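hey so i finally got around to running the thing on that chain from the lab meeting. sorry it took forever, my laptop kept dying and i had to restart like 3 times. anyway pasting the input first so we r on the same page abt which one it is
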Amino acid sequence: MTGAALAGSREPAQVAVEFLDKVRTGKLNIEPGGDTDLTANTDEPKRREIARRLERNAADLDHGTLEASSTKIDANLAAVLVRKVGGFDPNRLRVFAVALIKHGDAWRPAPVLASFENSGVGYAPGLRQRLAALEAWMLEQQAVELAAIQQQAGERMRQAISVALPPEELRQLAPTTVARRFLDACAKQQLPVMLGLLGGLQPEPPEDWNKRLQAAEAAAAEPQTAKRPWRLLVAPEVLRCVVRENTEASSASLAIACLDPIAAPGHPAQLPLELVELNLEKTADGLWQVNLPPWFVSAKPQIPAADDPDTPWLSNYPATLRHTIPLQALPTPQAALSAYEQALHAPTLEPLMAMLDLDGDKTTARLGCLRAASAWGALHDPACIRHPLALGFFATDSVAAASFQYFSLREPDRLDVHVCFFEKAAAGWHLLAGFLPKAPAAANLLAAKTWADGEASRRADTWRTSGLSGSTQVSALAPGNAPPEAAARSLVESWLAAIRAGNVAEALALTAWLDPDTSPARVLRNLSYEISGAGKATSAAAILTVTRGHTWTTVAVCSHTSDPHSHPIYPVISSPAGPKILIEVDWFAHASRSREFLNTTAVSHLRNQISPTLADELHDLFTQQAAAIGH
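ok and heres what got predicted. didnt touch it at all, straight out
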């Protein structure tokens, strides 16, 4: 803090930091009376211009910690400098200036950075000179502070690296240990170690040091969204395996086969093994340095595929993987199935690979790894939320198989059957990698394969009902016994949390349905719409009102989507398993003609399942509650 701001400067500094945080997260309300001091007489073109400026500022704010550094106060006016710190790349450091105006006891930020432009500061005599002085101070000090923190960045980096990776330790390490240490640092996003091994401790850094620094820092900051090829080294779901090592006195090279289960978002069926080769050299001062392939710092990287029959060291992949991830066999086929389902939901591939049989034919074992990764990747694909709905199970004394419907929010009516196979070995039951082409199958294995081949046709008409096993079927809805308001509110709160998290199983467990012929398709389709809508909402949905009738209790919700009229009203009933949402009846408090038609269709569907009296009661509750919330 500057000497001019020692008294009472903490309040405007805090407001400035909160303002910039809202700018970068896109949560700033720039309407008059919102989060800034924007004057009400600012015309619409100017407001749009201010919004565009703030969007550009948000890109500069990016990641990093915001901290106020200097503040200058002049009566009811203030100027605050805020640093964006964190990381070691001087080109990513920023200093922002925020102007603030005090109204009563509250400080409010001006809508334009480093300026009092379009704020409600007023036009009192002598004010222009005070405003100009503060704006000049902000611009001048911005440049001074930015130059200072950029100059400090290099020394901060060397200190951080030396603590995490002392130079003497680096000199003593074996080259293969250095390479594995680098891979471990990438997987754990330990940026100082990564930079130290990339040459950050060298008296004379590599020629492409700035590119190395920028690329490594960006990858470590957001490992799950890192762009390729860095994603292969930092993303937690990528499975890495060293398949070749060559070492000499002052150099070494390692080839790492990388299996990315989400290599192609939206298209998880076919995955490649990708190869990353690390080259190490010992520099003149005795420090080991990792040199990445040039495409790691290239604007248009070309990643070579490793899954090529002419790549001889890939035959070592299954054995090396097994050494890294030991086999965990299970005592029964049912236990293997349970472990498989848990592994599909695990955050990484390791639990699934621990179940996989990697003995026998090496090509089949490697393909089995790709198949397993594809099954996992389809469920963790950010391009489309999917959920495995258990369908069928087949078991003999030595072979078992299980089928799943990969329920997709994008295509809720599409049948997509996946089958996995298990086999019993001396150690217990394990996941089968696959079948050898044209090889004769034992009787039990052939029976399991025949069963699997028929699952899609057998499940074509029944998979939706099977998929609702976690939901509650209500064969007859008796009048009376409406759920208490508190229980209905709690149920809907759990429902809103589940759909916002995209948790299909948890959401289904909170629902009930009526008719085996028509309800399952509506339940799954409406569930898909709900989760997709929640993913687009600007904030978490909130309950508005709860109304209890004779048989029904209805809960009105503000869903905070881009549609200002999107207020679902959920019908809650009592069931043998407790209060449940009858999600097949989707009713929205909405003034549009199309929504009224859909509301009418939902109630018409209900009239075909229950008595007209009960349907009329629910319709009355819907309309009363819609009127109560102003729709």
